[in-house]
Amino acid sequence: MKKVFVNGYGSIGSRITQFIAGDPDIELIGIGKYSPDDKVHDAISRGFGVYVPKNKIEQFKNFKISGTIEDTLEKCDLVIDASPGGNGYANKKNLYEPKNIQAIFQGGEKITGENAVADLIFNSRANYVEAFDKKYVMQGSCNVTGMGRILQPLKEKYGKKIKRFDATLLRRWADLEDYKTEVKDSIEWTRKPHHNDDVKNYMGKDTPLFIRAFKVPTRQMHVHSMDIRFNEAAPSSSEILELFKNEYGVATLYTAKGTKDIRDFAETTKFSFKDTNMIHIHADMLEVQDDIVKITYSDDQTGIVVPENHLLMQAMLFKRNKNDAFKHTEELFHMEEKKRILEEHFAQK
Ligand SMILES: NC(=O)c1ccc[n+]([C@@H]2O[C@H](COP(=O)([O-])OP(=O)(O)OC[C@H]3O[C@@H](n4cnc5c(N)ncnc54)[C@H](OP(=O)(O)O)[C@@H]3O)[C@@H](O)[C@H]2O)c1
């Protein structure tokens, strides 16, 4: 059985931990915590061993911790780094490389420049097998992950018939549980959004993708509005919807009024963490004009990357056949069931 450690127990780390704890192929060694707060109790109450940095052990004297991160990593085959964006590189240099362990990094890190954590961004829809022989891989961020679920099926079906993809990303300001971050009454633009290069890392440098990104004052998901321009008359709306009908992690909804509508429904149906783990194509917003398909979809910011981390872990640890890996992820995440429930609830009236 492979031994896995999750370093960081915030929005992403706590979700990953909860799911992989249920994976019979994995021995979850524990989680890394850096601040002595209520989340330590949360982790312990769920049965997870809590490990802390050696130099912070004194700060945790009132908690029943299991040991230090430095010592416990010696026993691990792979670490899932879920630290705040930008910390992954230091962790790689100080912890993972010296201990010779494989590591998965999250989307807030870099894959170019001197602080690059890896040379590959993972997207299960586009490059699953490329992670097989890698020691370090970065899981794309939530927006970057969601885009692969739209772009890859389009690329496979239409290839060179597509002239360009122009996408505007409306990004949530903060996560649901993140009460430390104030949601400002402002719309902020991002100069040179990282998403463009990140998506091209797994889709290919020559992908004709052009992204603009804005941060909007909400905690409820991201929305992408994308124009897909063809070199000829664009396919019909029904052909586009048919293309995504059986895509894993893509639901087609007709009657959602906004992202909170979907999140509230996810809460009533008791989806774990209120996550849908997928993107939702808003079919009522789909339009075809001459050579352009205009598609709008929402992207479950925290939930979408969690099954992706599980798929990536299977590729890196077991080199598991892609179909078997998806089946195994489905056993833990039940995304087909979630998709069915969402599509029924938000069906065309
Ligand atoms: N949130 C999202 O929707 C989302 C989606 C996709 C990707 N991501 C990416 O996932 C990563 C984590 O984001 P997040 O939203 O989960 O952040 P977060 O909620 O702020 O959690 C970060 C966690 O990392 C811990 N930590 C602090 N210093 C650390 C260190 N040096 N090494 C390891 N862990 C450390 C923190 O511990 P303490 O609390 O104990 O200090 C906290 O538990 C980022 O790269 C982010 O860009 C986030």
Question: How would you summarize this macromolecular structure in one to three sentences?
Answer:
With 349 residues, the chain is of the alpha/beta class.
Question: How would you characterize this protein structure?
Answer:
The chain is α/β, with parallel strands linked by helices. The protein has 2 domains: 2-140 and 305-333, Rossmann fold (3-Layer(aba) Sandwich), CATH 3.40.50; 142-303 and 334-345, Dihydrodipicolinate Reductase, domain 2 (2-Layer Sandwich), CATH 3.30.360. The chain has 12 helices and 16 strands. The protein has helices at 11-20, 38-45, 69-73, 88-99, 124-127, 142-158, 195-203, 237-244, 259-268, 305-318, 322-333, 335-345, and strands at 2-7, 26-32, 50-52, 67-68, 78-81, 102-105, 121-122, 136-139, 162-172, 188-190, 209-216, 222-230, 250-253, 279-282, 287-289, 292-299. The strands form 2 sheets. An 8-stranded parallel sheet has the order 4-3-2-1-5-6-8-7, with helices on both faces. α1 packs across α10, α6 (142-158) packs across α7 and α10 (305-318) packs across α11 (322-333). The longest helix is centred in the middle third of the chain and has 17 residues, at 142-158. The relative contact order is 0.13. The mean pLDDT is 97. NADP nicotinamide-adenine-dinucleotide phosphate (NAP) binds next to α1.
